[in-house]
Specification:
It is built from 13 helices and no strands. By secondary structure, it is mostly helical. It is globular, with a radius of gyration of 21 Å. The C terminus is likely disordered.
Length: 319
């Protein structure tokens, strides 16, 4: 970050320079520097804007098509990180919301770049767009409750279909390593958790009951998926575990803890919470955000539950 400041002071900027900023921002997200990441993403967006705002001459017609694609994919990466940071920090909008990303570039088909079948980044970009749509509908609803429910339901169906397609392209037992699935799982957790809190007429209560069932099933799926993490030494083995998966595990653990505190399925939820906490501790040597989320869970967990978990002979000691 010191070198970035020096280069910025010299007035230097380029696509590679913006990518360097983005890499630093990803480091902050992955290792739990939430405040720093929140500031940094705005600086990344401004640096990317500056590539065109302060351009001295039109972009050369001879520039290679691959360079154009790199510029557009750079914006995809910015949007993915920006949208995730917004989700992690609550109700505030991403910096890039309402903008066309990737931007239109002369002689370069933005839709061709996004639909490239072998590119993982465009798929993650699409997942982040669905995640942002969910965030918008949950935190900026219209005055009409029925319309809001229909909108969220439509997004949930789209995300579910998207997950089905992605899972077909991911090798068996490797869903854990998919950035797209991490982002789409986050969107579904947000929707289902919000749905369980609904109050109102009988129809809304029915929706809340359905959301509770879907939420329980999703948490179970996440728990089953990450149960294998304690088999790996992520501190030494370079597994492609996306940092966004850490937040998925944390949210699933927080939801499970809430179910446990309400007295729902005590034994089953104790086992799930133990698996999810172990997963966070397994992730921590690779991504320090796992340690941060574990501490947040500890702060929200009552001493009684911690003691009960640690003394549960069927699950072993709490990690």
């Amino acid at each position: 970050k010191s070198w970035i400041s020096l280069l910025e002071g010299a007035g230097l900027n380029s696509v590679k320079f913006v990518k360097a900023r983005l890499l630093i921002n990803l480091f902050e997200v992955a290792h739990g520097f939430a405040v720093e990441a929140y500031f940094s993403i705005a600086n990344v967006v401004r640096a990317a804007d500056a590539l065109s705002v302060f351009q001295q001459q039109p972009m050369p017609q001879s520039m290679a098509e691959t360079d154009m694609e790199e510029y557009m994919l750079m914006w995809c990466g910015i949007a993915i990180l920006d949208r995730f940071i917004a989700i992690e920090n609550g109700q505030w909008s991403p910096v890039t919301r309402g903008r066309q990303i990737p931007p239109n570039i002369r002689n370069c088909d933005r839709f061709a770049v996004l639909k490239h079948p072998s590119a993982a980044l465009p798929r993650a970009f699409e997942a982040s767009l669905l995640l942002d749509n969910m965030h918008t509908n949950l935190h900026q609803p219209t005055p009409h409750m029925a319309f809001n429910v229909e909108e969220v339901t439509a997004i949930v169906r789209t995300v579910t279909s998207f997950e089905t397609v992605i899972k077909q392209s991911v090798p068996e037992n490797e869903e854990l390593f998919s950035t797209s699935l991490a982002l789409s799982s986050t969107a579904l957790l947000l929707a289902y958790e919000n749905g369980t809190k609904a109050i109102g007429p009988d129809k809304t209560f029915t929706c809340a009951s359905a959301a509770t069932t879907l939420l329980n099933a999703k948490v179970d799926d996440i728990s089953d998926m990450v149960a294998v993490l304690d088999r790996y030494d992520l501190a030494t083995k370079a597994l492609p575990l996306p940092p966004f998966m850490t937040f998925v595990v944390y949210r699933a653990a927080a939801i499970t803890m809430g179910r446990l505190q309400s007295g729902s399925e005590a034994e089953a939820n104790s086992q799930r919470l133990k698996i999810l906490r172990r997963a966070l501790r397994s992730i921590a040597p690779r991504w320090l955000a796992g340690e941060r989320y574990t501490k947040l869970l500890d702060e929200d967990t009552s001493p009684r539950i911690l003691k009960a978990l640690s003394n549960n002979p069927s699950t072993g000691p709490l990690q």
